[in-house]
Each structure stands twice: as C-alpha cells, then as structure tokens.
Amino acid sequence: MEQFRILKRYQFDRTVFGPTVVTVDGNKMLDDESMGCLRYLCSYCDIFKWSKCSALEPVSPFNYGRLVEQCRGERLIKARPYSHFILHLRYMTYEQFRELFSEATHIQLGFRMIRVPWTRIEFPKLVRLIPIFSGINFHY
After folding, report:
1. Domain count along the chain
2. Domain assignment of residue 14, yes or no
C-alpha cells in the first residue's frame, strides 16, 4: 500500500470495537498524510512509520553486537511475523541490553533467560510487550 485516505466522518470507537490492540508498522511506502489518516481512523491503535527494526529476522548470538548497532534508539523492535526470534540473554552483556532497549516503547521478541548473570532487566520506556508465542515472552 502506498497511500491511505479516508473521509473524516469515519472513526473506530473503542467502546464498540473493544480494547483490541492494533499495531500498524513496517510499510515504508506510506507517507505522512496516510499515517495521519490511520491515526485519525483509530486513535487507540499503535501506528508507526517504517523502522529498520520492525521485521527482524532471527539473529545468531554471535551477531548480537550488530543487532544492537542496528536497533539502538528505535521505538519499535519486532520480529518478522512467524520467525520465532528468541533473544538469548546470556550471550548479551547488560550494557548491550540496556543500549538496545533504552528507547523501545513496543517490543515483540522472545527472551530466553537461562544462566544470565544480571540481577535486573529494565525497559525504561516500554508501553507494550507483545508475545511471539501464545502468551509467552520470557523463557526461564
């Protein structure tokens, strides 16, 4: 899709359509006006411009440094649909983790936390943590 336009008389009502979370992202063709139309249509939806980290392929633990370089400072960090991207935290330093997620507001990844030497994890700006498997984000 390259453009999205809608007459201003149409708008989704959360009380009618329920509190379902809707995220629109990953389309680098949509212009600012289209994004504005989507936000007007669904004011409770999460609408993001295209991001280089909105459809990540699984990354080998040996390439976590490259992942941090690519995605630090991004608000949306999300696995490509059906990719089952699980971040194995024992192969990442705490500093890398903090740097990667310091600005992230929406995350859709799995996390595996086995033999992780840290005592704390933080997502300082997190709004939504979306599971990649049915209801599961963290594996202990």
Report:
1. 2
2. yes
CA dist., res. 31 & res. 115, Å (int): 45
Determine the Cα–Cα distance for residues 99 and 108; give it in Å rounded to an integer.
17
42 and 86 share one domain: no
Sign of the Cα torsion 16, 22, 28, 32 reads: positive
Residue range(s) defining the domain that contains residue 104: 61-139
Are the CB atoms for 9 and 40 separated by under 8 Å? no
Compute the average pLDDT of residues 48-58: 85
Shared-domain flag, residues 43 and 67: no
**Predicted structure pTM score:** 0.74
Residues 131, 119, 115: CA angle, nearest 5 degrees: 70
The rounded mean pLDDT for the chain is 82
79, with CB counted inside 10 A (0-12, 13-18, 19+), is: buried
Tokens of 37: 């139309």
Which of 11, 29, 50 is the last residue in one of the domains?
50
Q: Which residue has the tokens 């630090």?
A: 72
For residue 79, which amino acid is it?
Answer: A
